[in-house]
Amino acid sequence: RRRYSAASYLDLISRIRENRPGISFSSDFIVGFPGETDKDFQDTLDIVEKVGFDESFSFIYSPRPNTPAAEMEDNVSKDIKKERLTILQHKLNELSSKISRKMVGSIERCLVLGVSKKNPGELQARTENNRVVNFATDANVVGKFVNLKIVDQLTNSLRGKLERF
Asked: How many other CB atoms are there within 10 angstroms of residue 56's CB atom?
């Protein structure tokens, strides 16, 4: 059981955002936990919408040995678990895409990690909110922080243009 309520969690998120505008939030989600009702799942979707997570990992519940949940009756059908995961992931992707779209046109401080996985002629960097940005340059900037202008949003990454470093 959680030792906090949804209201206290949302209040904490709100206070953090007041003190650190633009902060990003990430979370892990498990759907189909034993006893999860339609209302419980809807409550999860409501929290996801209110927080607006930048990134997330979501999974279908499966029992783990030696945990309290492993002793509980797994009473949520596989079909319902799959349906809930699809709905949740769609919502999370929608929110992530919305955040990425808002970044287009901005200048982001990024850490250059190395060669792009999509195009060996480009470099890959990560923004402060952990977004992947691919960009072209001849400069030796791997391992350095650079400023990239975000010029496009793709499904799982951003396109950038080197501004200065």
From this structure: 19
